[in-house]
Description:
Blueprint: E1 8-9, E2 14-17, E3 22-25, H1 28-38, H2 43-53, H3 58-74
Antiparallel strand pairs: 1-2, 2-3
Amino acid sequence: MKLKKNIATSETGxxxxxxxxxxxxxxxxxxxxxxxxxxxxxxxxxxTLLLNRYDVEPNQLEKDWDDLVAQLRDHQLLD
Length: 79
C-alpha cells in the first residue's frame, strides 16, 4: 500500500490531492501514518510501531487501520 506520490501532506494534518483539487484534514494519528507511508514503510511495520507506541489492542488497531485505508481509497489517495 502506497500513498500516491503527488499527494501533499503537512505535519499539521492537511492533505491535498492535486489531481482532484480535494483537500482534507487528518487527525494526529492519521497524519503520523501518512508520514510513515510516505517513507515507504510497510503496513506491517507501521502497525508494529503503533502497537508499541500506543496503548491499543491489536483488534482495535486492525479495525481502525481498515477504516483509514477505506477512506484513503475512497478519496483516491492510494496507488
